[in-house]
Amino acid sequence: MEHGPLQYSALRRPFRLIFIWFLLCFAAVGTAESATVSFIPQWQPQAQFAGFYVAYEKGFYRERGLDVRILRGGPEWPPSEMLAQGRADFGTMQLTAGIVRRARGVKLVNVCQLAQHSALMLIAKKSSGIIEPQDINGKKVGLWGEDFQGQVHAFFRKYGLKVQTVPQGATLNLFLRGGVDVASAMWYNEYHLLLNAGLNPEDLTAFFLAAHGLNVPEDGIYCLERTFKEKPQECRQFVQGSIAGWEYALAHPEEALDIVMKYVDAAHVPTNRVHQQWMLERLRTMVMAAGPRGPIGGLDPDDYYRAAKSLKDDGTIREIPDFSKFYCDCDTPDEK
Amino acid sequence: MRNKSLATQLIVFVLSGAAAIFLAASAYNYYASKEGIIRRASENARHLTLETVYRIEVVLRGAEKVPLNLAATLEHVSCERDDLVQLLQTGMEHNKELFGLGIAFEPYAGNPKSKYFMPYCFRNGDQQQLKWLGGDSYQYFGLDWYQIPRELGRPLWSAPYFDEGAGNIIMSTFSVPFYRETEGHRQLAGVVGADLSLSRLTDIVAAVKIYESGFAFLVSQDGVFVTHPNKDWIMRESMFSLAEARKSPEMREVGRDMIRGGEGFVPIPASLTGKKSWFYYAPLPSTGWSLGVVFPDDELFADAQRLVQRTVAIAILGLVFLAVAITGISRRITKPLRALARKTADIAHGDFSATVPETGAKEIAHLARSFNRMGEHLADYIAKRDFVRDTFGRYVTQEVVKKLLEDKDALEMGGEFREVSIIMSDLRGFTAITADMHPEQVVTFLNRYLGKMIEILTDNQAVIDEIVGDGILAFFGAPTPMADHPARTVACALQMQAAMDEINALNEADGLPYLEMGIAVNTGEVVVGNIGSERRTKYSVVGAHVNFTSRIEAYAMGGQVLISPDTYERVRDLVQIEGEVQAQMKGVSGTVTLYIVQGIGAPYNISLTAKSHVLTRLAHPLAARLDLMKDKIVTVTIEGAQISELGETGARVVLQGEPEAWQDVRLHLLAEDGTARPGKIYGKVTAVNPGADGRTEVEIRFTSVSPESRQVIRQALQD
User: Fold this and answer.
1) DSSP result, A66-91
2) Element (H, E) at B303
3) Tens digits of per-residue pLDDT, B26-84?
4) Whole-angstrom Cα distance, residue B119 to residue B134?
């Protein structure tokens, strides 16, 4: 029952040692020109961050003159804290998480909005009688932390639903055992975990929040405002290298999966290749959704304000941070 | 197949038939025994699986007892911190299988000052250790082991998980919610959790050995592998992720049935486990997990397969033996046939003496006998045919024979109009001359003459139509067209006439009579063709011109070649004419001029030496008697004839009577006493003149003079 904390604290120590060793190595071989930055994804190694691992493994950072250390992500190391504490230079976060942190005074900036599309969804078993949004009324719904709740609450408001919310943990077991009727899920992750737990798509009712007018972009790259001002070169190199990594990963999914699985195995993440494959393919639609609106990495002000407004409506934040302060395009004309 | 040898055909048919029968029988045997084996295997599998399930259940049920009792206690007894620790330590001692045991309270339920309150006792080596858990770093309310029983309101086993902190072992927590009465409400007070190391369960499962490589595995309530020989799968892959990776909806269905608590025995294709297998699965009722047992198909059916392998080996040996036997037998059967084929080829190449031994199987011996008979008959037939051809050729020209032999249509009855030149020859007075001769002498005499004539005719490519006695009928210009047939015929006639000197020289040496031959040649359109019936046919000429030729021949004197006006017209530039004969022909008004040919120019260049027809006046006329003949019969005998003039070839006779010109006569020379001398003279009246005293003077050309008579003539001429 102690598996949560024990597991990760036990892992932390050896990983720190590895990082120090890495640092020493880089200090020894690093040239005067290459700057060293660190990066932390917001979760354990998985295909959600394929582009970063691929960029690292294929040398896309290095060829831009940047040495990157990829830190092990996980629930104990939220990027917002890691950035605020100066323990990482770059991190990924959901747009809503970024807005919440900024609104609460952490001077973060979004330097690249990768996932243009929301993968957030509510899932119910058809056997619980939930077919339409209205059917959720009065049911038990598993909800993640506040970063994710703005959209879901907007969904409840939209359909006038009164529900009993239950905090949803790291697993779907509560939902699988029938502890809740509705679970929060990401299309690229939890939805497929349910399929991998023996539920068939036809057994499930899925509500994509994006399909209900509640699209909010998701993963983006963040750093401290200070970092962006002091190291614009490194920011640009990191963002460009990451985008190159994503483009390569989506063009060579099998190779990208090999790389992801290498990180997965190293971190003993209890997942499997078919799940990572599913994730990478869903990420493709989310990242490539940028296509029609502009290059990969752009953040649309409308998307930003819709996301921020849902958080404000929900009471999660009081003020909406100014878009121009929040989003910093690395490719602004003076830097090109 | 059609062109394969008998042995090959037999082998193919017999062996494939035998193999098919064998296959059907052994396939039936195999499947029948396999069904039984599957039934037994299914039973075994079921027993084995259920036994394993039972052993696991014992462990699980044992582990459940402590937290269940603890929760029951906590519902009724309100405990202080030390009591709780005591309860935990007792519980841990009670069940050595437990790794840890904890009591987690609802917010402020265990300690009114603290949101989190959770004493946790766990093993560290042989020692028990106590820890107080809960807080910002360990918010247990949101963890599965606490939250799920809380929400469900019933005890349950958590999904297995890796506990790296406890040394990378798989654990599962049995959580029991406990309730207390508060203001009349039964309210959740907390959850008792017992951590069980699954290493004993995995040992139990790993100990399951089925045949050589069969194995058992355990999956969680979500289908995730809890134990499996493939360590990489444990806690990472599930029945469903494997089904997805292997694109096997069947495997997914089995997985779904497993997590639903189903029980079954299903085949697994080789694509899923590397080899064909059978799979038995049954649920673990307390946890919702499922135990699966995999039996490799080949091991399950090893006995049946061994049996099949042996039967197949026996069958193959049998079939090989059968093949060898068939080859031997068929070679023995076909050996005479092959010999026969060789001999037939020999016959085809003309060796009719080829024979085969009349041995072997009855049918074969019969065939050999028939073949030998055929050879004999063929040889016989060919010999006969050759004889026929050769003999035939003696009468018919090779030309006709060839045409007949080569062209079947040439044997067709019927005919065509053709212009031909006809030759007809006859010996003068032959019948009369030979009348008194010995038959063998006649044949020798005749054959000498005919042999020579036939040789000449054949050399000139004449078709000899008919030989009757001493008479020859031949023609030129058919069946092979011959542009110069009139000239060639005349030349041939001249050659024949010329050859008479040679024949007469031989005859004289043999004491045979002197012969004279008359030849007629005529040219005209006749019908030629195969005349006769299917049984007897002759390539022959028919028509008025044939008869006409015969009549001309009657006018021909010995040594003469007499040609018709038609022939003459065609050869006049080539021939030398000795004289003309005005002849009265039956059926023709007036006289017909016939020409006596003396020779023919280039390219034939033949001329007859002029015969002396000189008559010498006798000082003493010879007495003679003259028989007038008609169709070789004496019609009138004239006595008292007087030969006034005499030569080798003719005589002038004065007689009493009126013989006609061209009448055949026989002249008897009389001795002084009036008796007939030996020997005969035949001739033809060539001229009739009135003489003195009312007597008639006739000129006679001799056509045949017997040697005795010749001597008398020579005597008389010398005198």
Assistant:
1) EEEEEPPP-TTS-HHHHHHTTS-SEE
2) helix B302-348
3) 888 878 877 887 788 778 888 888 888 998 899 899 899 999 999 999 988 877 888 89
4) 9
pLDDT, tens digit (0-9, with 9 covering 90-100), for B411-439:
565 678 888 889 988 887 777 677 777 88
How far does the CA of residue B136 sit from the closest CA of chain A (Å)?
11
β-pairing, B696-705 with B650-655? antiparallel
Token pair belonging to B120: 């946790």
Closest of B220, B232, B267 to residue B248, by C-alpha: B267
Taking the CB of residue A73, how many other CB atoms lie within 10 A of it?
Answer: 24
Question: What is d(CA A278, CA A274) in angstroms, rounded to the nearest whole number?
Answer: 6
Task: Write out the H or E segment, with its range, that includes residue B270.
Answer: helix B270-273
With both helix axes pointing from N to C terminus, report the angle between B16-76 and B81-94 in degrees, rounded to the nearest 10: 150
Confidence of residue A259 (pLDDT cuts 50, 70, 90): very high
Q: What is the mean pLDDT of residues B666-670?
A: 84
B685 neighbors B665 (Cβ within 8 angstroms):
yes
In the numeric block, the tokens 């290459």 are attached to: A34
User: Do B491 and B459 meet the contact criterion of CB atoms below 8 Å apart?
Assistant: no
Subunit contact B245:A273, Cβ cutoff 8 A: yes
Chain B from 169 to 198: CB within 8 A of any A CB: 171, 173, 193, 195
- With an 8 Å Cβ cutoff, is A87 touching chain B? no
Of B146, B152, B163, Cβ closest to residue A6: B163
Whose tokens are 């300690």? That residue is B111
Q: Is A10 an 8 Å CB contact of chain B?
A: yes
Which residue spans within B587-655 are E strands per DSSP?
Answer: 591-600, 606-607, 616-630, 633-646, 650-655
d(C-alpha B61, C-alpha B201), whole Å: 12
Least CB–CB distance from B238: residue in A7, A179, A196 = A196
| Crossing angle (nearest 10°) for helices A253-266 and A273-288 | 120
Which ipTM score applies to this complex?
Answer: 0.82
Distance from CA of B31 to the nearest CA of A (A): 35
Q: How far is A101 from chain B (nearest CA, A)?
A: 19
